[in-house]
């Protein structure tokens, strides 16, 4: 009996050693994709000409975060396209703002920089969370890491997110399943082309209060009084998005970076909602023409372009909650730009090229003013 018992114990210990060793091996061979970002302030011209102070992420072309080489921050920020062979995403962030910033990606397990930051904020001495993640202080560099998996995710600030995300600190993150044309493990998520579509909104009074330091005062105490006047798609005015040719299946990755829910609605062919927040549905939602996109949410949609479509055909995509007009004075009905707002067109045409690695989303309407280090040496992979 004792011999059998000792044998079972030895086998259990041996199995435990094998498991621990395997975990160490898998960890040591984990492949990491590293992105180098900076958080900076810039100015953007709204429809009608109003200039608004924004925050934004920018890719550091030197990949050393030591010099500023004239890169212009954007909102949305650069797309982080994680290769399917990578197991870990590492972001090194240089904070060029005057306030602390942190990074979080809801839906991905964060392994570094994940602890919340607390401050004694109220008169009773209670500790309040002011950031969901460890903060990178102004003019310093922080490192954040996540375990990766296939899906569509939103990178955003975890510090005072009701303000900093609205100021522009957000970007898209994606990883395909083994292939650049399959979004998830399910083979039904294969596609030929894709487009990323950000719905965002801007309250210029909030941006002004943050810029002049009056946010948190009686002049603008909190985002409870948030009243957006500008409604944007991909950070700007309406324009056509080329999605692909007839009979092709296109993946639409939708993001809502605002504080209010949106209802993207397509006129024309129906679509299939396949995932949200980076999690594929157990069943697809077929034959839909709209979907509820709540604040800070992502959704993946498959659209099959009809066989009857011709090159140049356009299908309107808009917000059914009617964020369709920018800077409207309801009392005077003063509409600066009636054709702007959350309205764009999905156009049938040549297949859009997919980005690889980390690439700029696009330049803002008006670039900011910066002191550029003329001794920068750009590194090209």
Automatic annotation (TrEMBL):
InterPro entries: Cupredoxin. This is Plastocyanin-like domain-containing protein. It comes from Methyloprofundus sedimenti.
């Amino acid at each position: 009996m004792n011999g059998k018992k000792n044998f079972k114990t030895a086998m259990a210990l041996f199995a435990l050693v094998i498991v621990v060793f395997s975990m160490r091996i898998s960890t040591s061979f984990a492949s990491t994709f590293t992105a180098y970002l900076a958080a900076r302030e810039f100015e953007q011209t709204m429809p009608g000409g109003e200039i608004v102070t924004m925050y934004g992420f920018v890719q550091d072309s030197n990949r050393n975060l030591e010099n500023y080489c004239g890169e212009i921050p954007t909102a949305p920020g650069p797309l982080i396209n994680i290769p399917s062979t990578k197991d870990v995403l590492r972001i090194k962030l240089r904070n060029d703002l005057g306030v602390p910033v942190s990074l979080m990606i809801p839906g991905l397990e964060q392994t570094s920089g994940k602890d919340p930051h607390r401050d004694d904020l109220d008169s009773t001495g209670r500790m309040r969370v002011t950031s969901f993640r460890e903060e990178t202080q102004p003019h310093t560099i922080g490192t954040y890491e996540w375990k990766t998996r296939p899906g569509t995710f939103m990178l955003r600030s975890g510090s005072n997110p009701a303000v900093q995300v609205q100021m522009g600190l957000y970007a898209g993150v994606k990883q395909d399943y083994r292939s650049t044309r399959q979004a998830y493990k399910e083979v039904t998520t294969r596609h030929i082309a894709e487009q990323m579509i950000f719905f965002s909104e801007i309250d210029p009074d909030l941006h002004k209060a943050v810029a002049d330091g009056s946010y948190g005062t009686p002049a603008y105490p909190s985002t409870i009084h948030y009243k957006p006047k500008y409604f944007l798609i991909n950070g700007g005015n309406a324009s056509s998005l080329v999605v692909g040719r007839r009979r092709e299946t296109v993946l639409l990755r939708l993001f809502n970076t605002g504080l209010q829910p949106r209802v993207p609605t397509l006129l024309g062919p129906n679509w299939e909602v396949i995932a949200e927040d980076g999690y594929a549905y157990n069943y697809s939602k077929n034959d839909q023409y709209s979907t509820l996109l709540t604040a800070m949410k992502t959704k993946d949609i498959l659209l099959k372009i009809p066989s009857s479509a011709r090159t140049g055909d356009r299908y309107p995509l808009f917000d059914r909650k009617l964020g369709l007009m920018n800077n409207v004075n309801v009392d005077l009905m003063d509409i600066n730009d009636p054709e702007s707002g959350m309205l764009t067109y999905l156009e049938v045409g040549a297949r859009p090229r997919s980005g690889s690695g980390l690439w700029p989303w696009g330049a803002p309407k008006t670039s900011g003013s910066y002191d550029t280090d003329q001794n920068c040496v750009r590194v090209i992979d």
